[in-house]
Amino acid sequence: MKKHNFSAGPCILPEEVLQKASEAVVNFNNDDLSLIEISHRSKPFVDVMENARALVLELLGLENKGYSVLFLQGGASSQFLMTAYNLLNKKAAYLNTGTWSTKAIKEAKLFGDLVEVASSKDKNFTYIPKGYEIPNDADYFHCTSNNTIFGTQMKDFPETNVPLVCDMSSDIFSRQMDFSKFDLIYAGAQKNMGPAGTTVVVIKEDILGKVDRTIPSMLNYQTHLGKDSMFNTPPVFPVYVSMLTLEWLKNLGGIEFIEKVNEKKATLLYNEIDRNPLFQGVVEVEDRSIMNATFTLTDEALKDTFDAMRKEARINGLNGHRSVGGYRASMYNALPLYSVQALVDVMQELERKA
Ligand SMILES: *Cc1c(COP(=O)(O)O)cnc(C)c1O
Q1: Which of 114, 198, 209, 349 could form a cystine bridge with 238, CB 3.0-4.6 A?
Q2: Is the dihedral of CA 235, 221, 185, 96 positive or negative?
Q3: Which atom of ligand 1 lies at the shortest distance from residue 170's CA?
Q4: Is 305 flagged in the annotation as binding?
């Protein structure tokens, strides 16, 4: 039996996806060759790439709206600089909600003026700032939809006339929203879509071509768009597994379906955190993430007992990020409800024992 996997990333993937992926590594499409040893220009792989790109648009409800999809390398971290390289002419506005936003801000500063419209650093990123103003003359506004490390999530996005850029690495495909509000969305695959090694970028093409600088080919979105995400050898295996996960999600009923499951899982865990006197949540209740729940023990003396119990219950990946401490339960799309129940059972058992 598989362990209950609450890992923050790389994260849990659906069993049927892992099964199909492992088969494709040995014998892809019954053609007696491995997926990872055929040409990326061959029809079987070109079909994978096209299908993966189409599924992204379909699931996000962005078909025929001027968006294109890329599967790039370098992780979401490379997008911190690539977005600025391609979009920042004079000035950009950023919302700072945690470690990842801070890193994005650091890179963008290399390319122009940066306005930090608001930050929750004053309270160790335990809330989402609200009521800030975005300068009308900014080239774009950048935010992080889900703060993977601290466990906060943006529930609303600002109305603004400047292009909206969002790092959705840890909550893309997890909840419904009007994705057409955004001009550029990026997400590292390994949080909610596939294995590490590719980053999905969804771009409204009309925001490109407006900066004065020369952009190196590999860092220029237009290069990759012009070649249908095949300018150079794409990460074939991560793209294939992402495609399988997106197919899995579509067959389940898409984002509309998975959002209900995700809310059920989050409600089950947060109710226990709030009810059980031995635990407390880390962040503001209204800003809690449905993907990453952070919590601590109210009595640190129980740590060894709790840790032994969760190990016994075969619960993996629950340690909080080193900058926060405590615990973090990552409940990505593929995590079953029964895994959250297993964690809640252990929390209740601790209460009985203590
Ligand atoms: C994990 C994460 C990143 C970094 O992703 P890499 O692919 O490791 O570069 C960036 N942003 C968010 C929100 C993340 O959760």
Answers
A1: 198
A2: positive
A3: 15
A4: no
Contact 99, 67 (CB under 8 A): no
- pTM higher than 0.85: yes
Query: For the chain, which domains are there?
Result: 15-252 (3.40.640.10), 254-353 (3.90.1150.10)
Span from the CA of 101 to the centroid of ligand 1 (angstroms): 10
Render pLDDT for 42-88 as a digit per residue (tens, 0 to 9).
999 999 999 999 999 999 999 999 999 999 999 999 999 999 999 99
Residue 250's identity, in one-letter code, is K
CA dihedral 223, 228, 230, 236 (to 10 degrees): 140
For the CA of 199, the nearest atom of ligand 1: 7
For ligand 1, atom 3, the nearest C-alpha belongs to 76
Q: With b meaning 16 or more CB within 10 Å and e meaning fewer, what string describes 193-224?
A: bbbebbbbbbbbeebbeebeeebeeeebbeeb
Q: Cβ(273)–Cβ(279) under 8 Å?
A: yes
Which residues does the annotation mark as catalytic?
100, 167, 191
Sign of CA dihedral 121, 126, 130, 134: positive
Q: What pLDDT score was predicted for residue 354? A: 85
Q: For residue 95, what are its two tokens?
A: 């919302």
What is the rounded end-to-end Cα distance, in angstroms, of the chain?
Answer: 29
| Tokens linked to 14 | 């659906």
174 labelled binding-site residue: no
- Tell me how far apart the alpha carbons of residues 154 and 259 are, in angstroms, rounded to a whole number: 15
Ligand-binding site membership of 76 (annotated): yes
